[in-house]
């Protein structure tokens, strides 16, 4: 029974509502608003609750109905505060006030200095300074810290003016500008430190202490012409202030002093490094240790000063590692101008020392030695890379010459060749120290490969015959490949070994003997990958490698045997073709196709009668491809490219003989292919006409089309071809076959375009522009009309209820 949620009655006046009414005809209550739908849902739920209540039965007196208390409305969220925060107002006002007071004091000195006596000036400045300082302390003691900071800053600024005024009065005697800055800085630092240690713990005096000390240090450094002793003392002074700030829990003083100590340390280090050179600009052992060497050692020790403030384990590790790095730099500086080899040897010694220490230290502390070892590894790696690049360039340059006995360049290398191998070994040990997981089998193999490459590069840096370097590269690559065949995880090692063999091949390209030997090793490696390697991952690599290197080996061997270039490709085609038939894998077949094409192309280009040579090689290739389609059921599709190769060979031969009518040779074959395709279509209703009839139809039409395109478009051949295309289109449409329809339409469209081409060239340009304009106008009108129709349809749908 519906009592409350009755959609046929007005929820307010309960008057009957007509169907589809938007407002109550009696009380004009809106009925289509979303609130009306929500009200109807609420009243319907009330009917549901009433039915449940009646089903319960009589309600006891103790549980009499009590109207629920209406929930309190949720307080509105406070409006987001905009504008300047209240706490920022006094800061802004007091900052501006302090600035104005200081400006007023400066103006007062500039204006009143001439008519006030010495006593008057002194009394005014001292009184203002003392009053501002006292007021700042009093406000800070009362809890008004912003006012205390502002007035304290004013008092310190007045203190600067006091010292400057005393100097202008002649009380400080004759002194340069740096001397005045020294006095001002020292005075401000001492007074500010006293104010900073007061119980008020104001920030302004803490920062002023460090600023005053910095001004005093710079002035003293200038007065002493850059004394290293003074720079070291400045570092200690700032470090002491940082320690005092940490002990008294004055954080601004501690961090500001730490920054000052860092700047002073940089000044000390840079000044010491710039003082290491002699008058001639050369750095020597004597110029360092008889001069600024102690400053560099002091700078290394000063890196440990942060431990005075913070002694956590992480801080200790970072500080000690930084100190060790600075010590390494100090020890290397005297040898900077002694040549690249000396610098490399010194850096290598530091690298070995710190790396060994990192391996000896506990794991938690080994980073202390690894950091300076890494810094020492930078010049070592640079020298090693430069030597390796120089070795590669010398080898490639020698490979351009004919013969294997040519000597590599005898010019002195950039650094001594003996540095390369130990440098690479030390770098590998450092990598193992940083990354422990590289110490496994793969890491050992990588290290062995790197050491082998370094050994060969060292050999290449000496004036030795080219064949020795090539032989060393080939031997290293062969050993790596042979070793990788023993393990299932030898893929990276195999690739490295094959890379070594490839590099040796490039290096020895000037000698057919070296090239043949390298290709033999590569062929053996490919065969081993197929027969003995880590299956199955090694076999695709062997399939890709074997046809190419085998073809290159046959080519190179034929060259050693004196066989002409024209006669080399046919054996290659036969060998790689039989290999592809014996092992029908996609990787091997693709590689065999590339190798065969390259060999055939080289032979054809070298022949005097290119047409005959091309026909011969196309015939051999077609026979092999067709044979593969006949031998392997899964390669039946190769019959199409095989037949195409044979047909192309026939065309090339016919062209060489001067034949001008190819239809006599193509139409019979096309007829055979079409008949075979029709037979398949009739026997298998599910067979596709595209796969069954397209080869024959293409063979029947495309050769004639090519002849028409290359010759006269107005000819009997063109007429017959057009008629044939029309017949194919009509037949395909009638029979609903895609092959004749597509082939006939495509060939006919190309033929029609060829017939139209002479007349298109003679058409005036205004005609082309006019046609383009009409097309664009039609498209634009159509587009706009579709938009109008879309709007009309949308409006019609909106009116539907």
Architecture overview:
By secondary structure, this protein is an all-alpha fold. The chain has seven domains: 1-56, no CATH class; 92-223, no CATH class; 225-310; 377-534, no CATH class; 548-659, no CATH class; 660-757, no CATH class; 763-801. Helix content is 73%, strand content 0%. It contains 28 helices and no strands. It has helices spanning 34-56, 88-112, 118-141, 145-168, 177-196, 203-223, 228-247, 251-274, 285-289, 293-302, 313-332, 340-360, 367-399, 420-434, 441-460, 466-484, 491-507, 512-531, 538-560, 569-582, 586-606, 610-631, 639-657, 663-683, 689-710, 716-735, 738-761, 765-799. Helix 4 (145-168) packs antiparallel against helix 5, helix 21 packs antiparallel against helix 22 and helix 24 packs antiparallel against helix 25.
Percent helix among the residues? over 70%
What is the residue-mean pLDDT, rounded to a whole number? 76
Helix/strand-derived category reads mainly alpha
Strand-residue fraction?
A: under 5%
- What is the rounded Rg? 48 Å
Oligomer classification: single chain
* C-alpha geometry: flat
User: How many distinct folded domains?
Assistant: 7
Largest sheet: none
Q: Stretches where pLDDT falls below 50 for ≥5 residues? A: 58-91
Listing every helix as H and every strand as E from the N terminus to the C terminus, the arrangement reads HHHHHHHHHHHHHHHHHHHHHHHHHHHH
Alpha-carbon distance between the two ends: 29 Å
Would you count the extended β strands for me? 0
Q: Count of helices? A: 28
């Amino acid at each position: 029974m519906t009592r409350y949620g009755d959609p046929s009655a007005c929820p307010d006046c309960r008057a009957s509502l007509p169907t589809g009414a938007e407002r109550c005809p009696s009380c004009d209550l809106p009925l289509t608003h979303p609130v009306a739908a929500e009200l109807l849902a609420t009243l319907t739920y009330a009917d549901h609750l009433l039915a449940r209540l009646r089903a319960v039965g009589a309600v006891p007196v103790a549980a009499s109905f009590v109207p629920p208390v209406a929930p309190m409305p949720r307080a509105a969220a406070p409006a987001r505060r905009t504008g300047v925060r209240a706490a920022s107002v006094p800061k802004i006002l007091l900052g501006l006030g302090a600035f104005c007071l200081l400006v007023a004091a400066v103006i007062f000195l500039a204006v009143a200095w001439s008519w006030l006596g010495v006593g008057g000036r002194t009394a005014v400045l001292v009184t203002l300074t003392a009053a501002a300082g006292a007021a700042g302390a009093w406000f800070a003691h009362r809890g008004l810290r912003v006012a205390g900071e502002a007035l304290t800053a004013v008092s310190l600024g007045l203190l600067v003016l006091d010292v400057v005024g005393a100097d202008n009065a002649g009380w400080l005697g004759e002194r340069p500008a740096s001397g005045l800055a020294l006095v001002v800085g020292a005075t401000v630092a001492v007074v500010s430190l006293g104010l900073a240690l007061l119980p008020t713990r104001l920030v302004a005096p803490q920062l002023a202490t460090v600023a005053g000390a910095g001004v005093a240090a710079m002035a003293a450094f200038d007065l002493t012409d850059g004394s290293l002793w003074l720079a070291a003392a400045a570092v200690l002074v700032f470090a002491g202030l940082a320690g005092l700030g940490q002990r008294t829990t004055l954080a601004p003083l501690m961090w500001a002093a730490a920054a000052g100590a860092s700047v002073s340390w940089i000044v000390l280090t840079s000044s010491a490094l710039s003082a290491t050179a002699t008058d001639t600009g050369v750095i020597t052992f004597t110029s360092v240790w008889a001069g600024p060497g102690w400053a560099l050692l002091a700078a290394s020790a000063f890196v440990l000063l942060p431990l005075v403030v913070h002694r956590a384990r992480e801080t200790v590790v970072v500080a000690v590692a930084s100190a060790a790095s600075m010590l390494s730099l100090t020890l290397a500086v005297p040898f900077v101008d002694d040549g690249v080899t000396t610098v490399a040897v010194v850096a290598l010694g530091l690298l070995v020392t710190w790396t060994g220490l990192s391996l000896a230290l506990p794991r938690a502390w080994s980073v202390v030695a690894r950091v300076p070892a890494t810094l020492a590894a930078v010049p070592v790696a640079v020298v090693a890379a430069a030597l390796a690049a120089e070795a590669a360039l010398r080898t490639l340059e020698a490979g351009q010459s004919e013969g294997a006995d040519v000597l590599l360049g005898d010019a002195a290398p950039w650094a001594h060749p003996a540095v390369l191998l130990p440098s690479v070994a030390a770098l590998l040990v450092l990598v193992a120290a940083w990354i422990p997981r590289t110490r496994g089998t793969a890491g050992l193999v990588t290290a062995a490969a790197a050491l082998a490459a370094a050994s060969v590069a060292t050999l290449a840096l000496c004036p030795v015959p080219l064949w020795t370097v090539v032989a060393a590269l080939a031997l290293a690559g062969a050993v790596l490949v042979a070793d990788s065949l023993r393990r299932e995880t030898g893929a990276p090692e195999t690739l490295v070994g094959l890379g070594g063999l490839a590099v040796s091949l490039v290096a020895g390209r000037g000698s057919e003997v070296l090239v043949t030997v390298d290709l033999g090793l590569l062929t053996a490696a490919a065969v081993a990958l197929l027969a003995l390697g880590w299956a199955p991952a090694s076999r695709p690599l062997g399939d890709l490698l074997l046809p190419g290197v085998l073809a290159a080996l046959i080519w190179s061997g034929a060259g050693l045997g004196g066989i002409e270039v024209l006669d080399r490709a046919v054996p290659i085609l036969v060998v790689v073709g039989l290999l592809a038939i014996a092992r029908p894998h996609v990787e091997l077949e693709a590689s065999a196709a590339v190798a065969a094409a390259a060999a055939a192309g080289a032979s054809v280009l070298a022949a005097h009668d290119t047409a005959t040579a091309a026909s011969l090689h196309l015939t051999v290739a077609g026979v092999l491809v067709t044979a593969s389609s006949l031998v392997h059921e899964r390669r039946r599709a190769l019959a199409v490219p095989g037949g195409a190769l044979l047909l192309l060979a026939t065309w090339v031969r016919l062209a060489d003989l001067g034949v001008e009518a190819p239809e006599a040779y193509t139409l019979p074959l096309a007829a055979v292919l079409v008949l075979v395709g029709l037979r398949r279509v009739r026997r298998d209703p599910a067979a596709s006409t595209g796969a069954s009839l397209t080869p024959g139809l293409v063979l029947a039409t495309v050769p004639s089309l090519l002849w028409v395109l290359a010759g006269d478009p107005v000819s009997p051949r063109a007429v017959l071809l057009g008629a044939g295309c029309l017949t194919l289109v009509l037949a395909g449409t009638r029979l609903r076959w895609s092959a004749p329809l597509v082939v006939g339409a495509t060939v006919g469209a190309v033929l029609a375009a060829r017939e139209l081409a002479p007349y298109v060239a003679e058409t005036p340009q205004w005609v082309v522009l006019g046609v383009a304009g009409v097309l664009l106008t039609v498209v634009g009108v159509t587009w706009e009309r579709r938009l109008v129709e879309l709007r009309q349809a949308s409006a019609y749908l909106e009116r539907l209820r």
